[in-house]
Amino acid sequence: MSEVLLDADAVGRAIRRIASEIVEATRGAESVALVGVRRGGVGLSERLAAAIREAEGREVPVGTVDIALYRDDAATALPDPKIGPSVVPFDPHGRDVVLVDDVLQTGRTIRAAIDCLMDFGRPRRVWLAVLLDRGGRELPIAADFVGKTVEVPAGAKVAVEIGGAPSDEDAAIIE
Amino acid sequence: MPAFRHAHLLDIASLDREDVLHILDTGEAFFGVSRRPVRKVPTLRGKTVINLFYEASTRTRTSFEIAGKRLSADMVNMSVSTSSVKKGESLYDTCKTLEAMHPDVVVIRHASSGAAAYVASKLDCGVINAGDGMHAHPSQALLDAFTIRRHRGTLEGLKVAICGDVAHSRVARSNCRLLRLFGCDVHIAGPRTLVPPHFAEAFDVEVHDSLAPALEGADVVMCLRIQRERLGEALLPSLREYSRVFGVGPKQLAMAKEDAIVMHPGPMNRGVEIDPAVADGPQSVVLDQVEAGVAVRMALLYLLAGEAGAAPEAA
What we know:
The complex is a heterodimer of chains A (175) and B (315). Chain A is an alpha/beta fold and 175 residues long. Chain A contains four helices and eight strands. Chain A has one domain: 3-Layer(aba) Sandwich (Rossmann fold). Chain B has helices at residues 17-31, 59-70, 91-99, 115-122, 138-152, 170-181, 199-203, 211-215, 239-246, 250-253, 276-279, 286-305, and strands at residues 48-53, 74-79, 105-110, 126-132, 159-163, 185-189, 206-208, 220-223, 261-263. In chain B, helix 2 packs across helix 12 (286-305) and helix 5 (138-152) packs across helix 6 (170-181). The two termini of chain B are 17 Å apart. The chains are: A alpha/beta (175), B alpha/beta (315). At the A-B interface, helix 3 and helix 4 of A face helix 1 and helix 12 of B.
């Protein structure tokens, strides 16, 4: 039993809308940089950068953070078998940095991602963009830009398929 | 990738290829941390690591200390000159005392082969062997492998020359074990007095009496330190004589591949086993080894300081 929350067309529309909201909120995205949270947020961050380029003709820098080393359960959940690199190819100082992830649930990943980002510099403001807010927060964290909000029971698994380029496979599905 | 399945790191012989690659890949993830503006991650906050060094060491001890600090672990250094060992405490009693302080990892260096394994059998925490007698120095072999892989892109099937005092070298033993796991063609060059009998069979490597056959076409040239304290043992006629036959200079290095890399575990005797022109030359990766050491030791502390078996939850 699976339920499609967003199909490829809906994903495309959500990305274009979030991109225009980011431009709107940051008055033209002049100082914006996007940071995808590995691994689910990486494809989405590239897609948002492309959508901002299309709408504004502006190139925004894109980075990635891996939160494995910043998890609040790092000391008890070790050894985490796979750690990816964190790459922030710009100085976050003074910028509007938009953290990008595919699904927002407990908020713990985003807490860790903020800590990781801060170790690269001090942004002027940190925003949060997610494709899907599924509810179930365990920390006081809220997204600024959301593709779709839907309450999903804690035990259910949500699969998001979203790469760096548009594809018919793009989707968010409850499995 | 499955969770790391070892509680200790005592030697390379107890690791297989997968284990080595797991450590090296984890090290890659930590490599970037040391090049960031904030060179620290909170991962091992609340964990305690004790550096227990019974032998003089600057670089290994400092490397472990920096690695632990960059992971936010509390690092405690115990060196022999200031400890109760001077007052005659046995290794067993030191272990028991340390255990009562509840460390998560003990890093030990000791002059006796097997000391790390003994400590691991007595302590209820992770133990990393930072060099025991002439037996093993696994973290050095791992950082050498990390450096080789970064420069050559692979560890598979390389020709590696290891030159110098193999007999007293735990670095050479650990490196031979590791490189053979990846099918490297390992060639030893050293005076007969400094290569133990049956070394070739025991480690499945080639042994030569001169540099030329080892260096010919090599991808990697490792120089070992001549331990000056060994000179009294009549194993070498003189440093000068040794340097003339086994010192690696530009002329010798020219026999290796054009883009071969030169390694040395340090500290170097410039002008003895390695010519300054080679040590400071474009093919030298000696300082890359030092940088790799911190990343690889971060990986080791990370893999051993965790509560084994507790699988990470999904995000």
